[in-house]
Design goal:
With 347 residues, the chain is of the alpha/beta class. Helix content is 45%, strand content 21%. It is built from 13 helices and twelve strands. β1 and β2 form a beta hairpin. α6 runs parallel beside α10. The chain is globular, with a radius of gyration of 20 Å. The structure holds nicotinamide-adenine-dinucleotide and glycine (GLY). The site of glycine (GLY) has 6 residues, from loops.
Length: 347
């Protein structure tokens, strides 16, 4: 078992261990006194893993009910959040009870926001079951839902009480979801850790499971360090957005249909690197990305993507931040006016 202690305003542990879902009840009862919980999950994950979690909770005297919603980003909204609140009232959840997010980033984000706002805040545990959620969304305390005006526009910072990463759960992930998580893993290598990048470039989508625990540990440790330095996203944390400004624009151009976040981030990283870095670095990045069945270019014309960039959350008044890795393992935040960014990208 590997443990990473995240020292944010509310410190907590991230436990990384194969097969840890089976002992999650014991791990949770070590840190939370209440014997009453609500598990929030989606319909796919519910069928695969709720049974194991319920058994483990019950073995440790924790009584839990399960709230299930349809899988996918379209559930991360106010309607589902309202139904979660109604369920919590129906189950008479009090301030000392807690929620468990069992699933990917969608489950983690909406459960975290429910925990941040129900009764003005109750504890929650993250049990991430996608690679993206294990290496990124379950750690760091960003929670949110989507509204008509855009993705993740309503949310709160709410750190979990505990995160349990069982990499065995990743074996049931469809390949596209594994690829999506790998885009974020490659990002961590590019921004902070050349050795991690080398591990990703010497493996591929078929054999990456062999080194999964090491990868998950390294990515979380990088995120821990960044989040500890900038919990509320005022500066350094922005480097986690490498490839994301253009990535979100590409996802938006595709109307978020048949185009994953990981595909957008992969192309976004290539476009920025191609524009600002050496051909050698660009070549290494592209080769690595392709070995995880992710795209390295987009059919979306640049002039149609740029308007999406200026409406991104990373855009403040008339300026935009973008991240460049001139050397693998090291990132720099650059801030320019929106028109300057357009000129640079078109140039
Ligand atoms: P997701 O939660 O929709 O999961 C992807 C799919 O995989 C779903 O259909 C789900 O049912 C299925 N699934 C989950 N675990 C599975 C398993 N073990 N086996 C088989 N199928 C499984 O998507 P995601 O990629 O995990 O997360 C994306 C979300 O995370 C977005 O809403 C994004 O905004 C958010 N996010 C948040 C942060 C943050 O810091 N809070 C960071 C990055 C992304
Ligand atoms: N996923 C970006 C962040 O946590 O800041």
């Amino acid at each position: 078992m590997k443990i990473i202690n995240v020292r944010t305003s509310r410190p907590y542990d991230v436990i990384i261990e194969r097969d840890s879902l089976k002992k999650s009840g014991h791990l949770i009862s070590d840190i939370i006194k209440s014997k009453k919980a609500v598990i929030i999950t989606d319909d796919t994950v519910n069928k695969l893993y709720s049974g194991t979690l319920l058994n483990s909770l019950s073995e440790n005297g924790i009584e839990a009910s399960v709230f299930v919603f349809p899988h996918g980003e379209q559930s991360k909204n106010l309607t589902v959040l309202g139904k979660i609140f109604d369920f919590l009232c129906e189950k008479r959840i009090t301030r000392s009870d807690f929620l468990i997010a069992l699933g990917g980033g969608v489950v983690g984000d909406i459960t975290g926001f429910a925990a941040a706002s129900f009764l003005r805040g109750i504890e929650f545990i993250q049990i991430p079951t996608t690679l993206l959620a294990q290496v990124d969304s379950s750690v760091g305390g960003k929670t949110a839902i989507d509204i008509a005006g855009g993705k993740n526009l309503v949310g709160a910072f709410k750190q979990p009480a505990l995160v349990i990463c069982d990499s065995d759960t990743l074996h049931t992930l469809p390949q596209e979801e594994l690829s999506c998580g790998m885009a974020e893993v490659i990002k961590y290598g590019m921004i902070r850790n050349e050795k991690l990048f080398e591990i990703t470039e010497t493996h591929n989508i078929s054999n990456i499971h062999k080194v999964m625990d090491e990868i998950v540990y390294t990515c979380i440790d990088i995120k821990r360090n960044i989040v500890e330095n900038d919990e509320f996203d005022k500066g350094e944390r922005m480097i986690l957005n490498f490839g994301h400004t253009l990535g979100h624009a590409i996802e938006g151009w595709h109307n978020y249909k048949n185009y994953t976040h990981g595909m957008g981030v992969a192309v976004g990283m290539c476009m920025i690197t191609e524009r600002f870095c050496t051909p050698e670095i660009t070549e290494r990045l592209k080769k690595c990305i392709e070995s995880y069945k992710l795209p390295i270019s987009t059919e979306a014309p640049l002039n149609e993507l740029l308007p999406y960039c200026s409406t991104d959350k990373k855009c403040e008044s008339d300026s935009i931040s973008y991240i460049v890795c001139e050397k693998i393992g090291s990132a720099e935040i650059r801030r320019v006016s929106v028109s300057e960014f357009e000129k640079l990208m078109e140039g």
